[in-house]
Design goal:
about 220 residues, alpha+beta, Dna Ligase, domain 1, D-amino Acid Aminotransferase, Chain A, domain 1, 2 domains, seven-stranded antiparallel β-sheet, four-stranded antiparallel β-sheet, 8 helices, about 30% strand, binds adenosine-5'-diphosphate, binds magnesium ion
């Protein structure tokens, strides 16, 4: 975890929800693995980004809070024609400032989040991601800073632990790698009390490869 870099980013950030560029820099400084992403504002930039990222890719709106709810997430984009078509559709969705082009990941959906509580500091939460989190309310928590043992216990105490580990031939995600990400996130927060709220939902995990694909960070 690159503490001076984290401080530089947080000191320069304006209040509120952070744009993708700031989130990328924070994750890179904290060593939180993520998919490659590029922000584009024109059809030409979208085509260029596609060449850089490779196929298939994902396109999503930047601006709306719940991107799927406004049909603002397109998975599995395979060709230039679709890039142009979807760019024109996405950029016209209300409140959309730009389009995010991302590498496509796969695996089980995991979640990590944190909230700053005045009297305690950061409370870190984890569980399975996607809509599973909301429906099953299967979430465990711990107080930052978290060590690897505490993070591992948080994972083991989930009801969905068996699914994360993998079951009946379904490949899961490496729990040690997931625990390391929780530790890195909690270390980053230790040096950034200005982060009042954040979540990564989901991270996609398949074996050793666990990547953040959607994140929100609020600084105050
Ligand atoms: P939101 O949560 O705002 O609706 P997300 O960025 O989380 O938008 O995208 C919705 C869903 O699409 C995710 O939960 C995930 O299942 C899938 N998804 C998003 N980005 C990627 C990606 N880069 N690779 C694979 N799947 C993705
Ligand atoms: Mg999401």
């Amino acid at each position: 975890v690159d503490i001076p870099e984290i401080r530089r980013i947080v000191d320069q950030a304006s209040d509120g929800y952070q744009p993708p560029e700031i989130i990328h820099r924070l994750f890179d400084a904290a060593g939180i693995p993520r998919v490659q992403e590029l922000v584009v504002k024109t059809p030409e930039e979208a085509l260029q980004a596609a060449e850089q990222l490779g196929w298939p890719l994902v396109m999503k709106v930047i601006g709306p809070v719940h991107k799927s709810d406004v049909r603002g997430v397109v998975l599995n984009v395979h060709d230039q024609e679709t890039v142009l078509h979807e760019f024109n559709r996405l950029i016209n969705i209300p409140e959309t400032e730009a389009v995010l082009m991302a590498e496509m990941a796969s695996g089980i959906e995991l979640f990590v989040g944190a909230k700053y509580e005045n009297r305690f500091g950061h409370i870190v939460l984890c569980g399975m991601g996607g809509t599973m989190v909301e429906v099953l309310k299967d979430v465990t928590s711990g107080l930052a800073p978290l060590g690897i043992c505490e993070a591992s216990s948080m994972i083991k105490n989930l009801k969905s632990y068996q699914i994360i580990k993998g079951y009946r031939g379904q490949e899961g995600a490496n729990q040690r790698k997931f625990a390391e990400i929780i530790v890195r996130l909690s270390s980053m927060l230790r040096f950034a009390v200005e982060i009042k709220e954040m979540d990564i939902n989901p991270l996609l995990g398949k074996g050793d490869r666990i990547l953040a694909v959607d994140a929100r960070i609020r600084i105050e």
